[in-house]
Specification:
Blueprint: H1 12-17, H2 19-31, H3 37-96, H4 102-112, H5 142-150
Helix pairs in contact: 2-3
Length: 170
């Protein structure tokens, strides 16, 4: 199975046609026991075939979804451009209302009409001292950690940095 065989078509049926090949290849991979040079070569060959299929599926997925994503982006851009001026105008209004006056304004609005109340209180936060925030609210930035390791950092308190063998298929 050195060649990916697909059914004719130009959509999901093309991707679905690869399923049988994937099932066969997956079974072959599961049944390989690497015990000598010959079985190692067989494993490498199967891994290469799997990578070819994965790349094919990813390329086909991108090809199929690109028009949809392009259309979505065009719609999003249009909606954003239509509301941008209004959003900025409302932001300008909100910035003019001092926080201390909100309760007074809200009371007056309630007096005008309970049904047309346009202000509400919402709970929010701002970081005053990050070192005092409990750990349960903090998240490790794994991308930043990997980037630091790639840049040569070998010690980060609380983390074990080590080498791990990984099979590279070319």
């Amino acid at each position: 199975m050195n060649q990916i065989q697909t059914a004719p078509g130009n959509g999901l049926e093309v991707l679905a046609s690869v399923k049988k090949q994937i099932d066969m290849l997956a079974d072959q991979c599961r049944n390989v026991v690497i015990s000598d040079a010959q079985s190692l070569e067989r494993a490498k060959s199967l891994a290469k075939q799997a990578k070819l299929i994965e790349n094919y599926i990813e390329d086909k997925r991108k090809e199929l979804t690109k028009p949809i994503l392009d259309r979505k982006k065009a719609i999003d851009d249009l909606a954003k451009s239509l509301t941008k001026e209004l959003t900025e105008a409302v932001k300008h209004l909100r910035e003019q209302i001092p926080f201390e006056k909100l309760a007074e304004i809200e009371t007056k609005a309630a007096e005008l009409s309970e049904k047309s109340k346009n202000l509400r209180e919402v709970w929010t936060f701002e970081v005053v001292d990050i070192s005092l925030v409990p750990r349960e609210y903090l998240v490790l930035d794994e991308t930043a950690v990997r980037r630091a390791i790639q840049n040569g950092v070998r010690e980060i308190p609380g983390l074990k940095i080590f080498k791990k063998a990984q099979l590279v298929i070319k």
